[in-house]
Amino acid sequence: MSRLRVHVLALGGTIATRPDAGGVMQMGAGADDLVAAVPLLKELADIEAETVSRVGSHSLSFDDIHAVAGKIAATAADAVIVTQGTDTLEETGFLLDLLVKRDIPVIVTAAMRNPALTSADGPGNLLAAVRVAGDPWIRRHTRSLGVMAVMLDEVHAVADVIKAHPTRIDAFASPQTGPIAALVEDRVVPLGLPVRDAIEVARQALDKVSGEARPVALLWMGLDEPGGLIEAILAAPDRLGYRGVVVAAMGGGHVPERLAPLAGRLAAALPTVVAARAGGGPLLRHTYGGASSEIALLEAGLIWGGRLHPLKARVLLETCLRAGLDRAAIARVFAAWG
């Protein structure tokens, strides 16, 4: 096998911060700096380092990630590693998985500890990502694995991974499935292949995603929610600029009973997806009765998000809308998630 060629695309984030004169961490390091901090990389691969942006991932946009997907589509490298902040990694990685159709390893990684702290994890995560990119099992199963997230010596499918803690070094987990591989010493230990049928359904439906942004509201249901935001969206002639809505619902797919009529009106006005506020499904379909039950909401035209986390459901809905899919096509895409 020829020497591995890896294209590193750096977007910013904690992994790329530096302390200013007051000791506060600021964006500053680029892709070359990240690579230079891990001398062992040059023994593993030929690295092409490209700085795309220097922002926290909380400031990234859908358009930014579409541009990254374009770079991945055009690269001549054998693998691509995207470094970024952790705030939105679970969303940006999932969006890349929907958009990227290359049969090369594509990995997102980041850091929880900034470079000024003891045992900063950024260099180790970047090294682990390169090791994963060159591993024979990973390369043999690239299409079956899709885009991966590598954090703290674990490899996750981006459709399943979430940021489960705001600050801890072990912040990333895949609660529904567990990691797909682990790094031990200098080797990758396979643990399982992800179920990707739903991703393939989405990719086929999203063959051409070239439209302008379609903002999607995320409405989180909680105890005694009065529904004022739903009313405001319905009352505004332009729907406050939103083109779709994700409702992070209670339990297996429920909203407070007094909101059931509003939810039905919302579904009639805009494509409205229900996802589990618990962080993933699969949702119920025909267990409970009543005006605000899953049965009633489905009959009212709300789209079921299956096992998707609300954040990922929002990413998928925005991408469907950007691709120009109608409500029926959107429902078919989401139905594949169970």
What is the CATH class of the largest domain?
A: Alpha Beta
| SS-derived structural category | alpha/beta
What's the helix-strand series?
EEEHHEHEHEHHHEEEEEEHEHEHEHEHH
Strand content: 15-25%
Which architecture of the largest domain would the CATH scheme give at its second level? 3-Layer(aba) Sandwich
Largest sheet: 8 strands, mixed
Give a verbal description of the structure.
With 338 residues, the chain is an alpha/beta fold. The chain folds into 2 domains: 5-195, Rossmann fold; 208-335, 3-Layer(aba) Sandwich (Rossmann fold). 33% of the residues lie in helices and 19% in strands. It has 13 helices and 16 strands. The chain has helices at 31-36, 41-44, 62-74, 89-99, 122-134, 136-140, 142-145, 197-205, 228-235, 260-269, 294-299, 310-322, 327-335, and strands spanning 5-10, 17-19, 25-27, 46-51, 79-83, 106-109, 148-151, 154-157, 162-163, 172-173, 181-184, 187-190, 216-220, 244-249, 272-276, 303-304. The strands form 4 sheets. An 8-stranded mixed β-sheet has the order 4-1-5-6-7-8-11-12, with helices on both faces. It has a 4-stranded parallel β-sheet with strand order 13-14-15-16, sandwiched between helices. A two-stranded antiparallel ribbon has the order 2-3. Strand 15, helix 11 (294-299) and strand 16 form a beta-alpha-beta unit. The protein is globular. The two termini are 40 Å apart. The model has no long low-confidence stretch (mean pLDDT 96).
